[in-house]
Amino acid sequence: MALTREQMAQRVARELQDGYYVNLGIGIPTLVANYIPEGMEVMLQSENGLLGMGPFPTEETVDADMINAGKQTVTAVKGASIFSSAESFAMIRGGHVDLTVLGAFEVDVQGNIASWMIPGKLVKGMGGAMDLVAGADNIIVTMTHASKDGESKLLQQCSLPLTGAGCIKRVLTDLAFVEIKDGKFWLLERAPGVSVEEIVQKTSGEMVVPEHVPEMQF
């Protein structure tokens, strides 16, 4: 059974470490803020100039002026800092973000990512993704394994305009957790109830499958 958006966010949250500065992209990545392990201190950064982003607000605590890069209302944790987007991008470009979580349309076996444009379709555009993939060593992409038409998003070579080249090392889809190295996808974990055969069938790029592929636990 494919992972829900919330389960994907939960799985990504396990990759957090105490003291991390983390940037969460638009979509599924923003949900990671709700699953930070108790007792762990993580500072979430938003390109529009907020370091120390908290969970999404309730109706009682919503502040229309407190938004993330996707224009969603957010909260701030104790010790948060608000600054200009220029300073925020200086932090990103200077390599001061420990983990970046991004959505994508496609990823290929060379670690290329396409996340900003589908010709002929109206999408949000590049945003800060170009800077994030260039300024971070530790990036996790979250996306569905295949499109609604069943077309694989894990490809031998990206077909859409690239956001960044050779920068992606790990991908979490609704079916699997995958590492990219040596020009191949390496299957690390599978979603509960999802077979290795289904994952391989829905992966266009070359995939290495170990003898034992553990199920993710929730």
UniProtKB/TrEMBL annotation:
Domain of life from the UniProt record: Bacteria
PROSITE patterns: COA_TRANSF_2 (PS01274)
Matches recorded under InterPro entries: 3-oxoacid_CoA-transf_B, CoA_trans_fam_I, CoA_transf_AS, NagB/RpiA_transferase-like
Keywords per UniProt: Transferase
Single GO MF descriptor: transferase activity
NCBIfam families: pcaJ_scoB_fam (TIGR02428)
Family: Belongs to the 3-oxoacid CoA-transferase subunit B family.
Protein name: CoA transferase subunit B
Source organism of this protein record: Balneatrix alpica
